[in-house]
Amino acid sequence: MTEQHTVVVIGGGQAGLSISWHLVQRGIDHVVLERESIAHEWRDSRWDSFTLVTPNWQCTLPGYSYSGGDPDGFMNREETYQFVRGYADTFDPPVREGVTVVGVRQSGSGGFDVDTTEGSMHADHVVVAVGGYHTPVVPRFAERLPADITQLHSSQYRSAGELPAGEVLVVGNGQSGAQIAEDLHLAGRTVHLVTGGAPRVARFYRGRDCVAWLHDMGTYDVSIADHPGGLGKRENTNHYVTGRDGGRDIDLRAFALAGMRLYGRLLDVVDGTLRFAPTLESSLDAADAVSESIKDSIDAYIDRVGIDAPREERYVPVWRPDREVTELELPTSGITSVVWSIGFRTDYRWLRAGVFDGEGHPTHNRGVTAVPGLYFLGLPWQHTWGSGRFAGVARDAEYLADRIELEAGVLPATATLA
Question: Which InterPro entries does UniProt cross-reference here (predicted)?
Answer without folding.
Answer: Auxin_biosynth/cation_transpt (IPR050982), CHP04046_FMN-dependent (IPR024000), FAD/NAD-bd_sf (IPR036188)
